[in-house]
Task: inverse folding
């Protein structure tokens, strides 16, 4: 295996030198300098490092102004990215941390701790160009090199030659100078960067990679190979790029030293804190008031009057009433609200002596609904009229439930149908059939996607919060009434803020909206 | 036979099986549906097994336990707690001790409540109010033809809405404004002229009323959901305008939902015609 | 029974058949057209366009096959654009099926002959972190550390072995984030946590059912761009195709389905009109006193 | 014991999440991180529970030979197939080309997609038989829906194609509805829901609301 590889490498060397030897004859120092000058970039300015405010001391913020060469050249400019280096205060060498894309002015270092002091340096990194990857195949390689030469005639002018970086399928040995991702690449780039030396020619690179698995013989222009120690890995050359060398990076002054701070209060969120406290206060205050037995006023909810009329209509016609409490289980607050309204409907049917039918899709809902209907009949003074089979379970399956109710509607033709609770797509099927049998339909749900269909297909709809308000009104439960009232105060405060804010803002007096920004 | 071709035929068989329900309920549909129900539960089971329990719990917990045997304490040992709570959740399948599942449930409920309290307050209330507070009227220097069309339509609509709501407040059945009818009419006439001039003005120079319209919608909509005061007088008028905004909103939702549903069907028809029958390229 | 009553009493199955045919026939037709681009789609395009090559883009695929007809065309187009633009792509999913849909989008992009798969290396240029259970808590946790949520990627590779992920600690290291969402958890959760807590720049692709609820977030800038439903997909494909400097084929299924979509809308509108005419001709049924 | 401990847990976890938002200092960040990790594992178990529960119900149905027990058998078989194939494939079970992926692409995808695509038919028939301009509100709704429906497809191009190319009248109107009127209405709903959620969450954390614990 190893032999085979040495053979391949030798062969490659042969090919490569055959390819590049003529070019070697005319390397011109002048052109090199000119070339380098052309690609030299200016460093970014005003580089500073601060503690990232309002966090647990795990981050530093780096700010800078763009290098003047960033975004000069057409759309892209000369700067490909910014390279960030960091060292502990007092140490000499910088360590590569990460890169930021060109046009960026800010970066975060999230890999710091709260104990140490850090210093930073930033460098603008010039572009290099990436070409098509080629597989590990010597003949292909030669072809590719030819193509590459055609694409990049300056190859012989570049003193640093071509860099081939390599990828094995096992990432731990992966070297990608393009992305600076591997530890090997990291080290080399940053060591040379911090030492201030330019990578001149293959020797520089050899030195950088001495600790790694650099095994290739160096050719004048065909820089180097990196080899994985895993022998069975199929190799793939991924990038061939013009490598300008780290020496071309334009570095800033050292910034720092800085240390992170842990904050005890997130200063940007004080407005949220105040609003949350005020709102919670009102909600809890009104719940307390309601528990003490204070009457809390709730406006007339028109949908509840419609309930009475609709039950009356069924009575006149001598037909049944269907009540459908949605397809969700008892822990859904919409189902709870729906079942509360069922209590009201049941009381009316008991008083008017109309037949009520409640098909449900959850066993727990069935149990609760039976209790509620029974209680309503007892309160109306007609416990004997209650029959357990008024409330019956059909199936848990969403569409199965809809289909079963569909069939019942067509057969029994109820005069009035209530839909109160949480509904999904089945709402459509139910409301359509209900409409086709000319039933009066009253719906109530807080499902935003189903509300439009109910509004279009039903005679009356309790929209969203109206459902909860209705149930609070009917159940007289202090916790529901109190919260409703507390929310109303919250709404009133927000409405006032809104009105004042818009007026103030329209006349351009004051940036009122910033109170609500984060 | 190529497994892909077999796959496409099976997929078509099942697709048509589900669609056969449109004709009427039948065994073919029930069969397809049963496969769907079983398969999707199996899918969740396998998916969660590898992607959550294995990747998340086991890979953290087992090395921690191993290192415990070597006498080291690992922070990841705290995952034992999660493991126990997860097991408690599964105990719901055993009714006599099913109540124990309330413990993990209350972790979920508590966490969700804590997170939601802040999230909804911040993203859905505070930030929404903040971005509604903007100048009601702006005068953009230049806007394109298309936008100005929208602005003009918007202006006409707004003036119409203003006019109608003013009419409602003045003459509505629940109006509490106690003035002689001629005076009311006079006010209304002034408003009418103002609105007409405004509309005309907006045709000649686009003033952007987006801020005002959004403000009115939010304001009136919130008043509709305000339960501490009867909907009479100004409140009644505003609430009525609020319902109009809500209705337009529902109309938009309606349109989008129809669009969505139809897209899904188009996707299936595309499968039948392109991938299965290959009658369309 | 008069004509209108008979018309309304028609068997539903005829309607079903009619709809099926109305949607199938346009599939055989091919039209090309220039759609007007709405501001929210333009916003999404601008945000992507401003990104520099090698910027890190987080894509969360929060949908499953039923919503794919709407969201897949968007995902395909954006994936193609990001690959061609050499953005580094990090894929994840809050729905278990999401990462599979992401792979489909990748496959579709690489099937384009102008995007050469061999130029893109898994782990360096794109990564699929897979699904994580926990809904919005996953986003919340990613705010402090991606690694803690995704110790392994989709295929079981370790996080630290993925070169792309090594430099990424949390949302601070992400330049832009896109979310394809069909419901819960989805765009709303990303806005509430990633945007409002961790200041991520977010673009969204939504099913049409969800899109209207996302518009307030677009208006307030919490979402920088939004593509809703099939129309959003077609507009995205259009704007990419119009601005593309490459030969990548952007106009794909979103554009192709648009004609069927048009017919579908026409059918629904026609039904509503006919139904309502019949309703008024027959005469309204006796009304409730309180109903408005 | 059955109620107190869950209430204490709920309060602790809930308060931890709220405090963490305002105080980034340790230990609150650590506590929040720990709870989040736990939560996602519990969530996974909860979904697992659903999957197992289905299996349990189906087994009961088959063993008691209930009506349609054959289809319950189909459920069990397909459940087992998917789960076993998935688990036997190892962590890379979803990679393209695996058996699991085959099942997913050719069986799961068409079934789930078709299930939801059926709604298109129902929408169409409901639009014919149920959506009526029965009052002013419903009329407004339907008009808005019409404008949006027509503006989001090719009516501008196909019907008004004779107009100058940038006169997309219907698109402009529907853009206006979506970006302005819809935004306003949705925002009112959002704010209302937000306040409701705050009060419900507050009640849950403080133990005032206990309905999630069920009754015993």
Result:
């Amino acid at each position: 295996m190893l032999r085979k590889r040495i053979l391949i490498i030798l062969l490659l060397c042969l090919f490569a030198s055959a390819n590049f030897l003529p070019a070697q004859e005319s390397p011109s120092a002048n052109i090199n300098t000119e070339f380098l000058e052309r690609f030299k970039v200016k460093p970014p300015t005003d580089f500073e490092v601060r503690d990232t405010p309002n966090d647990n001391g795990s981050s530093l913020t780096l700010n800078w102004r763009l290098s003047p060469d960033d975004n000069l050249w057409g759309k892209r400019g000369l700067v490909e990215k910014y390279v960030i280096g960091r060292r502990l205060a007092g140490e000499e060498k910088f360590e590569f941390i990460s890169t930021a894309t060109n046009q960026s002015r800010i970066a975060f270092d999230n890999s710091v701790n709260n104990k140490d002091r850090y210093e930073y340096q930033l460098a603008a990194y010039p572009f290099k160009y990436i070409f098509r990857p080629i597989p590990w195949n010597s003949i292909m390689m030669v072809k590719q090199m030819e193509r590459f030469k055609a694409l990049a005639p300056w190859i012989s002018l570049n003193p640093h030659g071509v860099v081939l970086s390599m990828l094995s399928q096992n990432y731990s040995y992966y070297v990608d100078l393009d992305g600076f991702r591997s530890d090997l690449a990291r080290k080399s780039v940053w060591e040379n960067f911090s030492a201030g030396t330019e990578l001149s020619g293959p020797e520089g690179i050899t030195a950088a990679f001495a600790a790694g698995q650099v095994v290739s013989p160096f050719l004048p222009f065909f820089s180097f190979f990196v080899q994985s120690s895993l022998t069975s890995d199929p190799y793939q050359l991924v990038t061939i790029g013009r490598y300008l060398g780290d020496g071309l990076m334009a570095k800033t002054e050292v910034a720092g030293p800085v240390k992170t701070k842990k904050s005890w209060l997130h200063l940007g969120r004080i407005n949220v804190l105040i609003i949350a406290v005020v709102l919670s206060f009102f909600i809890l205050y009104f719940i307390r008031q309601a528990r003490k037995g204070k009457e809390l006023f709730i406006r007339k909810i028109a949908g509840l009057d419609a309930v009475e009329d609709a039950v009356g209509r069924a009575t006149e016609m001598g037909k049944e009433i269907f009540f459908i409490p949605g397809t969700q289980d008892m822990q859904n607050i919409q189902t709870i609200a729906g079942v509360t309204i069922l209590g009201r409907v049941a009381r009316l049917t008991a008083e008017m002596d109309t037949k009520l039918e409640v098909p449900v899709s959850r066993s727990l809902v069935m149990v609760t609904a039976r209790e509620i209907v029974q209680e309503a009949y007892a309160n109306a003074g007609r416990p004997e009229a209650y029959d357990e089979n008024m409330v019956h379970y059909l199936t848990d399956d969403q569409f199965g439930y809809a289909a079963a109710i569909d069939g019942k509607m067509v057969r029994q033709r109820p005069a009035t149908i209530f839909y109160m609770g949480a509904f999904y797509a089945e709402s459509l099927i139910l409301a359509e059939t209900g409409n086709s049998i000319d039933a009066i339909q009253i719906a109530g749900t807080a499902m935003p996607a189903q509300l439009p269909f109910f509004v279009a297909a039903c005679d009356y709809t309790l929209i969203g919060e109206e459902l909860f308000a209705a149930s609070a009104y009917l159940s007289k439960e202090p916790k529901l009434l109190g919260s409703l009232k507390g929310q109303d105060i919250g709404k009133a405060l927000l409405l006032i803020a809104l009105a004042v804010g818009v007026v103030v803002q329209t006349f351009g007096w004051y940036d009122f909206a910033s109170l609500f920004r984060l | 036979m190529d497994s892909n071709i077999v796959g496409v035929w099976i997929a078509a068989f099942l697709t048509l099986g589900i669609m056969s329900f449109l004709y009427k309920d039948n065994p073919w549909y029930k069969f397809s549906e049963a496969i769907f129900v079983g398969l999707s539960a199996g899918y969740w089971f396998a998916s969660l097994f590898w992607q959550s329990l294995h990747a998340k719990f086991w890979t953290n917990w087992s090395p921690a336990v191993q290192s415990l045997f070597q006498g080291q304490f690992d922070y990841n040992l705290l995952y034992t707690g999660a493991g126990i709570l997860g097991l408690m959740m599964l105990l719901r399948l055993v009714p006599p001790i099913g109540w124990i599942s309330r413990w993990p449930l209350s972790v979920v409920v508590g966490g969700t409540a804590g997170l939601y309290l802040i999230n909804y307050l911040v993203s859905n209330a505070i930030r929404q109010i903040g971005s509604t507070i903007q100048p009601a009227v702006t005068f953009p220097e230049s806007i394109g033809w298309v936008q100005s069309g929208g602005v003009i339509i918007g202006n006409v609509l707004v003036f119409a809405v203003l006019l109608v709501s003013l009419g409602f407040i003045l003459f509505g059945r629940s109006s509490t404004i106690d003035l002689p009818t001629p005076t009311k009419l006079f006010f209304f006439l002034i408003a009418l002229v103002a609105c007409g001039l405004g509309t005309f003005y907006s045709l000649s120079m686009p003033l952007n009323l987006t801020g005002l319209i959004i403000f009115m919608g939010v304001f009136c909509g919130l008043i509709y959901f305000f339960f501490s005061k009867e909907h009479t007088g100004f409140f009644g008028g505003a609430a009525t305008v609020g319902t109009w905004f809500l209705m337009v909103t529902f109309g938009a939702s309606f349109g989008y939902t129809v669009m969505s549903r139809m897209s899904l069907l188009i996707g299936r028809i595309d499968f039948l015609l392109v991938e299965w029958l290959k009658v369309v390229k | 029974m008069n004509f209108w009553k008979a018309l309304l009493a028609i068997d539903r199955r005829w309607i079903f058949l009619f709809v099926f045919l109305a949607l199938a026939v346009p599939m055989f037709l091919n039209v090309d057209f220039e759609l007007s681009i709405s501001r929210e789609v333009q916003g999404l395009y601008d945000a992507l366009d401003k990104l520099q090559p090698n910027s890190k883009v987080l894509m969360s695929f929060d949908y499953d096959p039923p919503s794919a007809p709407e969201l897949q065309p968007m995902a395909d187009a954006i994936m193609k654009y990001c690959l061609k633009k050499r953005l580094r792509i990090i894929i994840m999913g809050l729905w278990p099926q999401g990462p599979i849909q992401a792979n489909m989008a990748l496959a579709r992009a690489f099937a384009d002959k102008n995007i050469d798969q061999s130029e893109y290396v898994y782990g360096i240029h794109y990564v699929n972190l897979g699904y994580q259970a926990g809904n919005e808590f996953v986003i919340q946790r990613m705010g402090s550390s991606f690694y803690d949520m995704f110790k392994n990627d989709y295929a079981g590779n370790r996080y630290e072995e993925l070169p792309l992920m090594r430099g990424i600690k949390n949302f601070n290291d992400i330049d832009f984030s896109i979310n394809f969402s069909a419901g819960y958890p989805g765009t709303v959760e990303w806005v509430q946590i990633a945007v409002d807590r961790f200041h991520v720049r977010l673009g969204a692709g939504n099913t049409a059912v969800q899109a209207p609820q996302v518009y307030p977030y677009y208006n307030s800038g919490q979402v920088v761009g939004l593509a809703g439903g099939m129309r959003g997909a077609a507009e995205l494909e259009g704007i990419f195709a119009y601005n593309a400097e490459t030969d990548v084929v952007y106009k794909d299924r979103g554009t192709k389905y648009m004609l069927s979509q048009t017919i579908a809308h026409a059918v629904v509108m026609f039904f509503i009109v006919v139904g309502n005419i019949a309703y008024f001709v027959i005469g309204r049924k006796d009304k409730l006193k309180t109903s408005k | 014991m059955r109620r107190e401990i869950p209430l204490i847990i709920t309060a602790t976890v809930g308060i931890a999440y709220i405090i963490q938002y305002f105080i980034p200092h340790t230990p609150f960040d650590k506590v929040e991180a720990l709870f989040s990790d736990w939560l996602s594992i519990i969530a996974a178990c909860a979904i697992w529970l659903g999957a197992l529960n289905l299996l349990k119900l189906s087994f009961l149905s088959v063993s008691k030979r209930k009506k349609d027990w054959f289809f319950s058998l189909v459920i069990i078989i397909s459940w087992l197939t998917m789960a076993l194939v998935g688990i036997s494939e190892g962590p890379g079970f979803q990679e393209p080309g695996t058996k699991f992926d085959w099942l997913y692409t050719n069986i799961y995808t068409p079934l789930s997609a078709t299930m939801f695509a059926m709604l298109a038919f129902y929408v169409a028939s409901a639009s014919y038989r149920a959506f009526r301009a029965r009052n002013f509100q419903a009329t407004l709704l339907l008009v808005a829906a019409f404008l949006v429906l027509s503006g989001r497809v090719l009516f501008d191009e196909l019907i008004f194609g004779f107009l100058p190319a940038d006169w997309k009248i219907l698109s402009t109107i529907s853009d206006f509805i979506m970006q302005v009127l819809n935004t306003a209405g949705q925002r009112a709903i959002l704010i209302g829901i937000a306040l409701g959620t705050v009060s419900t969450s507050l009640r849950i954390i403080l133990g005032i609301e206990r309905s999630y614990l069920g009754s015993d």
